[in-house]
Design goal:
The protein is of the alpha/beta class and 433 residues long. 39% of the residues lie in helices and 22% in strands. Strands 3-2-1-8-7-6-5-4 form an 8-stranded parallel sheet. A 4-stranded mixed sheet has the order 11-12-17-18. A 3-stranded antiparallel sheet has the order 10-9-16. The two termini are 17 Å apart. GO terms for molecular function: catalytic activity; magnesium ion binding. Keywords: Magnesium, Metal-binding. It comes from Haloferax sulfurifontis ATCC BAA-897.
Length: 433
C-alpha cells in the first residue's frame, strides 16, 4: 500500500457549508453553525464552500467570513478545515479570483491560517492544471512565510480530463518542479462530471457512475491520497445513502460528501465495525438479517421454509422444494448464510491470529457457528475460515480506521465507548501495533 502523506489516514465525512448567505443579518450564520458541531455530528473534514454553495456575488464576503469564523472558532473545531475556492480549468479569471481569496484567507496577521489545513480545488482538468493549482499554493505559502507543502490540496474530479489525470499522478508526484505531494483528498463531483460527459438518463437523474468511483479510489490508493464520493442530494433517503456508502466501501472509498449534520452522523458511523454481529440469510434472492433469540438465529418469513421429514428435511425456497439429508441441508444453508462480524469479533480473531503467529504458526482455522431456526425447525451450521497474514492485513482495515478516528477525534471518544464498551475500545487500540 502506498504510504499516506498526511496526519489522517482515513476521512469518513466531507461536509460543505455556504460561506455567505444573502439576505441574512449575519451572512456567516451557516459557517458559525457548522463550526459548532461536535461528536458524531462533526465531520472529519469541514469545507467552508466558497464555490457552488455560495452565490457568485457573495464570494468576496464569503472569503471574509471564512477568516472571521475560523480565526474565532477554528481552534475548537474537532476536524480538519479545508475551504473550497473557485477554480476552473478553462478560466484564468476564475483561477485568479480563487488565488486572491487564498492569499487573503492565509494572511497570518488575520489569525485563520493556523487552523486551516488546506484548500479544496474544484473543476480541475488535466495534470498540468493540477500543477497550476499546486504552484498557487506554493506562492501563497512563500508569500506568507509558511512552510512549503504545509497547505494540503484536495481536488474534485468533475471532468474526463481530471479522471484521466489521476493516472499521471504517480509519475508526476515527487518531481522537483512541483509540490503535488501536498495532495490529500480526491473527491468525486458527479453532477459536473455528468455535464462534462454529456450523459443522459430517461428520468434526468444522475447516473450512478460506478466506474468513476472505482477509478477515483484506485487513483487515490496509487498516489497515497484518500478517495471521497460526491454528494448524495436526496437528504431524506437515509437508506439510499447507506447503500451508496456500502457500495463505495467495497471499492475502498470510505469517505463521502455530507450535506447535512444528519448525513454526517450516517457517514461517520457507516464504515465503523458494527456493535453486534449478525447473520444474514439469502431468502429467495432477498437478503434478510436473522433475529437473534436466546442464542438462536431465527427466520420467520414466508420466502423460505424448513420441515423435518422421515428421511431428513424439506427445504422450500419460493416455489422450489427439495428433499435433503442433514449434511446436505447444512451445506445448502452455508451457501445461503453469511456473517457480519462485530468489532469484538474482529478484535477476537486478530488477537487469536497474533497469538498463533507469536507461537510460530502461519495460518489457523477459525470457526463460525450458529443454530438456525427456520419456522419451527432448528439446525446447527458451522464453517471454518483459514486466516493467514493476508487475511489478517485485510481485517486490519476497519480496525486501522477505528484507530485513526479514535486518535484524531477525541470528541467522539464517549460515543465510541458507549457504542462498543470501554474494554473493546481498549483492545481495538492495541491490536496490530
Amino acid at each position: 500500500m502506498t504510504e499516506r502523506r498526511h496526519d489522517r489516514e482515513f476521512v469518513r465525512t466531507f461536509f460543505t457549508s455556504p460561506t455567505a448567505v444573502e439576505g441574512e443579518d449575519d451572512s456567516a450564520k451557516m459557517l458559525r453553525r457548522a463550526a459548532g458541531l461536535r461528536g458524531m455530528q462533526a465531520p472529519d473534514v469541514w469545507v467552508p464552500d466558497n464555490e457552488d454553495a455560495t452565490a457568485p456575488s457573495m464570494r468576496d464576503e464569503g472569503a471574509e467570513n471564512i477568516v472571521e469564523v475560523v480565526a474565532e472558532r477554528g481552534a475548537d473545531f474537532p476536524g480538519e478545515i479545508h475551504p473550497r475556492m473557485v477554480w476552473h480549468r478553462d478560466s484564468p479569471e476564475t483561477r485568479y479570483q480563487g488565488f486572491q481569496h487564498m492569499l487573503d484567507i492565509t494572511d497570518p496577521e488575520r489569525g485563520a491560517v493556523e487552523h486551516i489545513d488546506g484548500f479544496v480545488i474544484p473543476e480541475v482538468g488535466g495534470i498540468d492544471d493540477w500543477k497550476k493549482a499546486d504552484e498557487f499554493f506554493t506562492i501563497v505559502e512563500n508569500e506568507h512565510g509558511l512552510d512549503e507543502g504545509s497547505l494540503a490540496m484536495s481536488v474534485i474530479i468533475e471532468s474526463g480530463e481530471a479522471e484521466l489525470a489521476m493516472g499521471d499522478l504517480r509519475d508526476e508526484m515527487g518531481k522537483p518542479t512541483n509540490n503535488l505531494e501536498r495532495l490529500f483528498l480526491l473527491v468525486d463531483g458527479e453532477v459536473d462530471y455528468t455535464k462534462d460527459m454529456r450523459a443522459m438518463t430517461p428520468t434526468g437523474e444522475l447516473p450512478a457512475w460506478p466506474e468513476l468511483r472505482h477509478n477515483t479510489s484506485r487513483g487515490a490508493s496509487a498516489a497515497g491520497c484518500i478517495a471521497v464520493d460526491g454528494p448524495y442530494d436526496d437528504i431524506r433517503d437515509v437508506e439510499g445513502y447507506r447503500e451508496r456508502m456500502t457500495e463505495n466501501q467495497a471499492k475502498g472509498m470510505l469517505g463521502i460528501w455530507s450535506l447535512t449534520p444528519g448525513q454526517v452522523v450516517e457517514a461517520n458511523t457507516s464504515p465503523l465495525p458494527p456493535k453486534t454481529g449478525s447473520w444474514l440469510l439469502d431468502a429467495g434472492g432477498e437478503e434478510v438479517e436473522l433475529a437473534s433469540e436466546d442464542g438462536v438465529e431465527a427466520y420467520d418469513g414466508d420466502r423460505l421454509s424448513l420441515e423435518p421429514t422421515d428421511e431428513g428435511y424439506e427445504l422450500r425456497v419460493g416455489g422450489d422444494a427439495r428433499e435433503l439429508t442433514a449434511d446436505e441441508l447444512r451445506e445448502e444453508l452455508l451457501g445461503l448464510t453469511s456473517y457480519v462480524p462485530s468489532m469484538d469479533d474482529i478484535v477476537d480473531s486478530m488477537e487469536e491470529f497474533e497469538a498463533a503467529k507469536e507461537a510460530g504458526r502461519g495460518a489457523i482455522a477459525m470457526t463460525q457457528s450458529a443454530t438456525l431456526r427456520i419456522g419451527g425447525t432448528e439446525i446447527d451450521i458451522a464453517k471454518d475460515r483459514m486466516w493467514d497474514e493476508a487475511t489478517y492485513q485485510a481485517a486490519m482495515t476497519p480496525i486501522s480506521l477505528f484507530q485513526d478516528v479514535y486518535e484524531n477525534r477525541p470528541d467522539q471518544h464517549e460515543e465510541l465507548e458507549e457504542r462498543y464498551g470501554a474494554g473493546v475500545v481498549e483492545r481495538a487500540m492495541e491490536v496490530g501495533l
